[in-house]
Amino acid sequence: MTQAPAFAPASDKTLPLWLVRPGPQGGADLPSGLDAMAQTWARSQGFAGKSGQLCLLPDAQGGLAGALYGIGGADRAGRDRWLLGRAAEILPAGDWRLAAVPADVDPALASLGWLLGQYRFTRYKPAEAPPARLVAPDGIDAAHVLALAAGEYLARDLINTPASDMGPAELEAAARDLAARHGAAVEVTLGPDLLDRNFPMIHAVGRAGAQAPRLIDLRFPGEGPALTLVGKGVCFDTGGLDIKPAASMALMKKDMGGAANVLGLAETLALTGATQGMRLRILIPAVENAIAGDAFRPGDILTSRKGLTVEVNNTDAEGRLVLADALALADEDSPDLLISMATLTGAARVALGPDLPPFFCDDDAVAAAIHDAGRDQADPVWRLPFWEPYETMIEPGIADLDNAPGGGFAGAITAALFLRRFTGQARHYVHFDIYGWQPSAAPGRPKGGAGQGMRAILNALPRILGR
């Protein structure tokens, strides 16, 4: 990672930061512990407690005595996710402590927002200034919050790294690094061995790439219910012979966002010790969808690991092909919970936008656990259906399945239905169609790679695996 998330050590040099809401009669609801001079100063600066409003407080010598930070009214909580992340971005460098937290603000989530706002991607350009640091508030599980941030940092770093430095080999190296940190076993099936070991669709999609395609398989030490995470690792997607236009190709370094998210989630699970109570497996089909003389073609019919034949009607619908072979392998172990994460369809973004990833699940109780955990952990997700009347849309007639049905309707659903065909032995299957990218900066979410669904899954696991 470019840097690890960290809280500042407590000391007598930390500066107080008050979180302030607007008052009922206008102006700010200033904290009672603020001295008269600071209150007068805040009013003279027009500080009203509006969301993201900052008021620095001077001391008697003209130095910095602390700050007031507006968090808006309670009615804005749904709109101002990770608002404290903005404070981490705009406060002067130094160490800060929360002097007062409103009763309806969760200090652990607020602290996580700060750490997420502290993130800087510095691999190619150093940060202009060090970020402000926060002392962990009393009463929170600081190690747990740091573990959540570490998983997010890892996912962001992997997605933000361009394909020149994050091809299949480098993605494998990142997985090996994670495995080494946490004692996981690694097995990689590479290049022609994919055919020998019956992963024909991973091989077909990736064989034209500059780096050999591969399947990365991590198994963590632990006992208990089996959780398998499968992440799409298309390190760059030209669209293949159905080449994307330049505008659509610009962000395709993020097409391995599913792999980045499952690795980020694995990092958090390991740091929190959760892996000790489960059998965690990570599968990542890592490829480049490139153009060369041996690239797979529109009209080709591929035979999958499961034996299902797939007609390729668009080489730009490659993610579901590589995921299908990986899901088939995962399903052979009959895990208690099988989850796929992928930057899979533009249709999901059209339906729900970049900030709200859909997920698909047949079990109402599992779906409710994931939705509720996402709501509670400021990691929103939204359930879409495996709508069975659309199954005929993915059945082309001359093969078992069509990877890119025409008509332009229900693209996210038909992709999810396609993937579900390669499962059936797992007790529960859930698919996330994520975007993995923050298109414009927001509090706690700088423009660039983004984790989605990780905390929702993490906090739903006790309800799902404990059933």
Automatic annotation (TrEMBL):
- Annotated SUPFAM superfamilies: Zn-dependent exopeptidases
Mention any one GO cellular component term assigned to this protein in its UniProt record: cytoplasm
Name of this chain's protein: Leucyl aminopeptidase family protein
PANTHER family, alphabetized: LEUCINE AMINOPEPTIDASE-RELATED, PEPTIDASE B
In the record, biological process GO terms are:
proteolysis
User: Where does the Cytosol aminopeptidase domain lie?
Assistant: 314-321
The superkingdom of the source organism is: Bacteria
Q: What keywords sit in the KW lines? A: Aminopeptidase, Hydrolase, Manganese, Protease
Q: Name one GO molecular function term.
A: manganese ion binding
What organism is recorded for this protein?
A: Paracoccus yeei
Q: Which family does it belong to?
A: Belongs to the peptidase M17 family.
